[in-house]
Design a protein that fits this description.
By secondary structure, this protein is of the alpha/beta class. It folds into 2 domains: 13-163, 3-Layer(aba) Sandwich (Rossmann fold), CATH 3.40.50.2000; 179-357, Glycogen Phosphorylase B (Rossmann fold), CATH 3.40.50. It is 37% helix and 15% strand. The protein has 13 helices and 12 strands. It has helices spanning 22-38, 70-76, 83-99, 112-121, 153-163, 179-190, 216-228, 242-249, 265-273, 284-291, 305-308, 338-341, 345-357, and strands spanning 13-17, 43-49, 64-68, 104-107, 125-129, 142-144, 200-204, 232-235, 257-258, 277-281, 296-299, 314-317. The strands form 2 sheets. It has a 6-stranded parallel sheet, sandwiched between helices. Strands 9-8-7-10-11-12 form a 6-stranded parallel sheet, sandwiched between helices. Helix 4 (112-121) links the parallel strand 4 and strand 5. Helix 1 (22-38) packs parallel to helix 5 and helix 6 (179-190) crosses helix 9 (265-273). The longest helix is centred in the first third of the chain and has 17 residues, at 22-38. It is globular.
């Protein structure tokens, strides 16, 4: 275990390993800025998987981004025809990592997959959390004891930066947006046709965990209420969420604008930057909105907002139940999902109105 700061002054190249997921990558952004402040002359790269690469590409603290196709490789390996080509691509990726000759690697993920990346670099200094899972700590040269829980993920990651003598945290969540991203956002928002002075609200009903989801009928009722009050309503999500969005939109008049499956990550960030409020379950886009300073009304059930809640303006709604937070993907209480079902539309509407009263509409 490491208690003395680990000096990286002799490491000319440093790699941050934080491959996924969207919210976790956003939480780790301050580590890049903090390391850049402490080690201004190093080459600092970030290893990320394809799905989250947009979030770190163009970050001013980074020298480069190393993009892994791990999830795509796993999908391709299900097809026997694709196996040889996929294995060759993965081997080339690992060889490229080693050729980069990193002097130090920081593993912010602490899982088996990130341990493989760390090993592939061949770096002489390999730093990560002693509490990592799936055997990840075994590949480390320096194991750092994480702060005791509950602590927010941002502070946990910054503790690893502090362990390598980067003790002046820079709590910035910079996501680089280009002119094309901003133009796309303006175009999509114009389609909402919100009257001047009326707010525009994003609803994000999707999450990967079944336990995080709020009932579809409640999203429909919420959208109908917001529309009836003259607000613009936008639905967001990935292509996998199109059926969910269609169910919410069906029969509503006027219908919300659905951008589900139509935005890149950076375009989504640009849209979130220019709306007045986001209402969402615990999700990656929730943290995108927080990163750009947009107020968030966040519905929490199985997860702990003290650890992964949005940082910034807004409100977290959750019920104090003996079983919550359970941190499980499936409800253990006879599949009742009570932690989310007990959240009513009226209290979500009240929280939304409260946030909007504190914020002048952006249009």
């Amino acid at each position: 275990m490491s208690s003395v700061p680990i000096r990286l002054d002799g490491a000319r190249r440093i790699l941050l390993v934080k491959p996924s997921a969207l919210g976790d990558v956003i939480h780790a952004l301050p580590v890049a800025a903090t390391l850049r402040r402490r080690y201004p002359n190093i080459r600092l790269d970030w290893l990320v998987e394809e799905e989250a690469a947009d979030l770190v590409t163009g970050h001013p603290a980074l020298s480069g981004v190393v993009v892994s196709g791990r999830r795509r490789w796993l999908r391709q390996l299900r097809n026997p025809v694709e196996i040889p080509r996929t294995l060759m691509e993965a081997r080339r990726f690992a060889a490229d990592l080693r050729r980069r000759r990193y002097g130090a690697v920081l593993d912010l993920q602490g899982l088996f997959k990130s341990a493989l990346y760390v090993l592939a670099t061949g770096a002489p200094i390999r730093v990560g959390f002693a509490e990592g899972r799936e055997g990840a700590p075994r590949v480390l040269t320096h194991r750092v004891v994480a702060p005791p829980q509950p602590v927010h993920a941002v502070d946990r990651y910054l503790a690893l930066a502090s362990a390598v003598d980067a003790t002046e945290p820079v709590r910035e969540f910079h996501i680089a947006l280009g002119p094309q991203d901003l133009a796309a956002a303006r175009s999509h928002l114009a389609a909402c046709r919100v009257p001047p002075g009326c707010p525009c609200v994003v609803l994000h009903p999707a999450a990967r965990w079944r336990t995080k989801l709020w009932e579809v009928e409640r999203w429909r009722e919420l959208a109908a209420s917001l529309l009836a009050e003259g607000m613009g309503v936008i639905l967001t999500g990935s292509r996998q969420d199109e059926a969910l969005a269609a169910t919410i939109v069906a029969g509503l008049s006027p219908p919300p604008v659905s951008l589900v499956g139509r935005l890149s990550l950076k375009q989504l960030v640009a849209v979130l930057r220019d709306v007045d409020l986001m209402i969402t379950v615990d999700s990656g886009p929730m943290h995108m909105a927080a990163a750009v300073g947009t107020p968030v009304v966040a519905l929490f059930g199985p997860t702990d907002p003290r650890r992964t809640g949005p940082l910034g303006p807004g409100a977290v709604l959750r019920k104090e139940l003996p079983c919550s937070p359970c941190l499980r993907r499936r409800c253990q209480i006879a599949d009742t999902y009570r932690c989310m079902r007990d959240l009513g539309v009226a209290e979500v509407l009240a929280a939304a109105r409260s946030q909007l009263r504190m914020r002048a509409p952006l249009r």
